[in-house]
Design a protein that fits this description.
The complex is a heterodimer.
Chain A (H helix, E strand, L loop, with lengths): L1 H25 L12 E8 L5 H10 L3 E8 L2 H14 L6 E5 L3 H5 L13 H4 L5 H6 L10 E13 H6 L6 H7 L7 H15 L7 H11 L17 H15 L15 H4 L5 E5 H14 L7 E4 L8 E8 L7 H11 L2 H11 L2 E2 L2 H10 L11 H9 L11 H17 L5 H17 L2
Parallel strand pairs in A: 1-2, 1-3
Antiparallel strand pairs in A: 3-7, 4-5, 4-6, 4-7, 4-8
Chain B lengths: L1 H5 L4 H9 L4 H40 L1 E4 L3 E5 L3 H7 L2 H32 L6 H13 L2 H11 L6 H8 L11 H29 L3 H9 L4 H12 L1 H16 L3 H6 L14 H10 L4 H32 L2 H6 L3 H11 L1
Antiparallel strand pairs in B: 1-2
Helix pairs in contact in B: 3-15, 4-15, 5-9, 5-12, 5-14, 6-9, 7-9, 12-15, 14-15
Classes of the chains: A alpha+beta, B mainly alpha.
Chain lengths: 438, 343
């Protein structure tokens, strides 16, 4: 008995020694990877990122690097994932994708991320459109994220449904129909009411996305440039809310669930005829059509026009958290993934729009027709739509206001259980409860 | 051993024995006898202290502060968070939802589990097959169950509404309507737990002496009478156990309502936001860790309260009838009196 116990003790001691050895090895971070000295980098992305082929390419070009990738279904879940791991102080991937909508929150703890200036950010600074690079820089001038894509918005529309309603279905004619350069939300809702009268069907899938587009388009959104809350007493925002409530009240919303759409069926069964499309949304639609078994014959197209002028919604960044054991290698990978050549490939895979100038030029040059969208040259259109985009300041609770304050209020409108005044009041109450007095 | 035998032999010898030091081996033996049991039970208590007690205490500490998820500890606010949470309409809403879903799941679940157990207790062919079958839903992960059911309960494209539509009925707003959404979530919970509870109840039923049934049958009691007069009273303690575990599980429900609406935390208007889901929203969306900890503690207290109520009820049931129960309630004087008369 005693002998056995001594044996156990020895075993425990041995295991502990091994564990110490193992941890001693893994904490050795200064080394660079090679074939003899393999190293695993973890990457977390979300939504449709289009990186799968690029990982393989990078592994091939850098022997010894093994990339372990995770993709989270959508941005809001990636937000929870990132916040949880930040709070826990461990678990973030070596390269972690951040979304513009919750970057404001991340900026409050930007010291948790590696300053990419230490890894050559200054040398590649000019790759990006200015505002994108600035968004990834914190107030102290530390660069914590390399931009991947931006979200200039064009208008997705269903040509077949337009035709059936007696509207033009040709891309240029549709852009003209909505007002071309002078396209406005008034016109958008007016056409929606015409369409509704002609077909009895909805114009947009649900109010939330239209609202996001409207707000992102404003010079100042939920926050002023100085970081003050900018909702209560914001006449411009309220007017837009009322315009949207009026449209939804007229039956223009299909009351779909966002990022669900009946597993994509809503995109194939003619539930709605228009859809607000930031670049990355084209990838989302592609995924939805695939899961619903739809293809190019579903009739979707992409017009070079957007109500209310240029708008940017979303876009992502790649960051390297301080907890990464291989910051040097991770920063190298992040820089490579966001370099213009790779952004072109990413755009081809995910249909999103690059944030680097050269990649944008390349997309315009190639003018590759997008088969799924009736062969629309989506890259060229998005480049046009990106003109005049102004970066909007995102505050710490921007994503909470979007998802938890306005979404419930808009859903009440979609479901027809409330009117403009009551829904706006509800939004203000929620804002008060969830953000102001949180 | 020898020392104790020698002791009564007188002071001189006793003193000498006291002087001889016990050998290392002897001391080790004494240590072994006295201390080992504690070591054997230690793993549980150490583990409990690490993953149970410490989080409990630490959560309480956090609940006394303004504590931001990312920025960390802020000012000490004492019980301020408790005051605010108790005035929070969403907290009470979440409690209502939790209780509603709990009742909608626990009651039908236990009734069906009892029925299933009674059926499985009969002389069936291929017993093991039937018993395994009712456990199958329990093996499937709750996430998969939630996803499948969420699909079925879809408002515009769901299977159930499609069937209702083809029968010419109005679709049910499974997600936007409060009661309908509670029914949908309770269905998921029942799907998962009914079989599990049925098996536990079945085990208890099998322990009921068969001769009781036989004599009751001879006395002319039918199957229903036998079930209510013999089976039910005999499995009461197990019923209590099942009720307690169902209560604890029911008050902590999270996965099903979380996945029922993948965008918002428990429905856009919080129609089915349970307390744990509200806790989650508070911590990871609103990033208020202090208040989230407060909610966690309040929920803990509520569960303790339910536990105490359950305990009191179960004690009542256990002592309510039967010869064993009667004996427990006798005072010492009573027992003496009985002994005397028996003599």
């Amino acid at each position: 008995m005693k002998f056995a116990r001594r044996k156990t003790a020895a075993a425990i001691a041995g295991a502990a020694a091994l564990a110490l050895l193992a941890s001693g090895c893994s904490s050795d971070s200064g080394q660079t990877a090679s074939a003899d000295n393999p190293l695993e980098l973890t990457v977390t992305t979300f939504g449709t990122f289009g990186y799968n082929d690029l990982y393989g390419e990078y592994e091939k070009a850098n022997p010894g690097i093994k990339i372990k990738a995770t993709n989270i279904d959508r941005g809001s879940n990636a937000r929870t994932d990132a916040f949880t791991k930040l709070a826990a102080g461990s678990g973030l991937s070596d390269v972690t994708a951040l979304e513009e909508g919750w970057l404001g929150s991340i900026m409050e703890v930007s010291d948790q991320f590696v300053d990419l200036n230490d890894h050559g950010a200054a040398d590649i600074k000019d790759n990006w459109v200015d505002w994108k690079f600035e968004q990834g820089t914190d107030p102290d001038g530390r660069v914590i994220g390399y931009g991947t894509d931006i979200g200039p918005q064009g208008l997705c529309y269903n040509g077949k449904l337009f035709e059936a309603a007696g509207l033009p279905s040709d891309r240029a004619a549709v852009a003209e129909l909505f007002g071309g350069e002078n396209a406005s939300w008034e016109k958008y809702f007016e056409l929606g009411k015409q369409y509704k009268a002609a077909t009895g069907k909805a114009w947009y899938d649900q109010s939330g996305f239209v609202w996001n587009s409207m707000v992102n388009q404003m010079e100042e959104g939920y926050y002023t440039k100085d970081g003050e809350l900018n909702v209560d007493g914001n006449a411009e925002m309220k007017a837009k809310f009322e315009m949207l409530a009026d449209g939804t009240g007229a039956g223009l919303s299909a009351n779909q669930t966002q990022f669900d759409w009946g597993n994509g069926k809503a995109f194939t069964d003619g539930s709605f005829a228009t859809f607000v499309c930031p670049g990355w949304m084209l990838g989302t639609i592609k995924g939805q059509l695939e899961s619903a078994g739809g293809g190019a014959d579903s009739g979707w197209d992409f017009a070079d026009v957007f109500p209310g002028g240029a708008s940017n919604w979303g876009g992502a960044f790649l960051s390297v958290p301080k907890t990464s054991k291989h910051p040097e290698e991770a920063a190298k990978l992040a820089a490579w993934l966001t370099a213009p050549e790779q952004q072109v490939k990413q755009s081809a895979a995910a249909n999103n729009f690059p944030s680097t100038l050269k990649a944008q030029e390349k997309l315009v040059q190639d003018a590759t027709p997008n088969e799924l969208f009736n062969n629309a040259p989506t890259g060229v259109i998005l480049a046009n739509r990106a003109k005049g985009v102004v970066a909007q300041f995102k505050g710490p609770d921007d994503s909470v206001i979007q998802e938890n304050v306005f979404l419930p209020a808009l859903k009440m409108l979609d479901a027809g259980t409330s009117n403009a005044d009551a829904a706006w009041k509800e939004a203000l109450t929620l804002l008060n409860d969830l953000v102001v007095n949180n | 051993m020898t020392t104790t035998v020698n002791r009564p032999a007188g002071p001189p010898s006793g003193r000498t024995v006291a002087k001889t030091k016990p050998t290392f081996k002897q001391r080790l033996n004494v240590f072994d006898v006295k201390a080992s049991p504690y070591f054997y039970v230690a793993p549980f208590f150490i583990l409990f202290a690490l993953v149970g007690l410490f989080p409990l205490v630490y959560t309480f500490v956090v609940s006394l502060y303004d504590w931001h998820l990312l920025k960390g500890q802020g000012d000490f606010v004492g019980l301020g968070n408790f005051v605010e949470v108790l005035q929070d309409r969403f907290f009470w809403n979440s409690l209502f939802n939790t209780m509603s879903i709990f009742l909608l799941s626990a009651i039908p679940q236990l009734a069906v589990a009892l029925f299933l157990a009674a059926m499985l207790d009969q002389n069936l062919r291929a017993k093991t097959f039937w018993r395994m079958s009712v456990l199958l839903p329990y093996i499937v992960t709750p996430v998969a169950v939630a996803m499948i059911f969420t699909n079925m309960f879809g408002e515009q494209y769901g299977l159930i509404n499609n069937i209702l539509g083809s029968l010419g009925l109005d679709p049910v707003m499974w997600k936007n309507d409060t009661f309908a959404s509670h029914v949908a979530i309770a269905t998921m919970v029942n799907w998962r737990w009914t079989g599990y509870n049925a098996l536990i109840l079945l085990a208890a039923m099998q322990a009921v002496p068969r001769d009781l049934y036989e004599s009751a049958a001879l006395d002319g009691a039918g199957a229903v009478r036998r079930f209510f007069s013999i089976t039910l009273p005999s499995i009461r303690p197990t019923m209590v156990f099942v009720v307690i575990t169902a209560t604890i599980g029911g008050l902590q429900i999270f996965t099903e309502p979380r996945l029922f609406d993948p965008v918002a935390a428990g429905g856009t208007q919080r129609q089915f936001q349970t307390t744990v889901l509200y806790l989650w929203e508070m911590a990871f969306q609103r990033q208020n860790f202090g208040k989230a900890s407060t909610i966690a503690w309040l929920l803990f207290l509520i569960i303790v309260l339910f536990g105490v109520i359950n305990y009191l009820i179960s004690r009542k049931i256990a002592t309510a009838d039967g010869p064993r129960g009667a004996k427990v309630r006798l005072s010492r004087a009573d027992r003496k009196r009985i002994e005397r008369t028996n003599r």
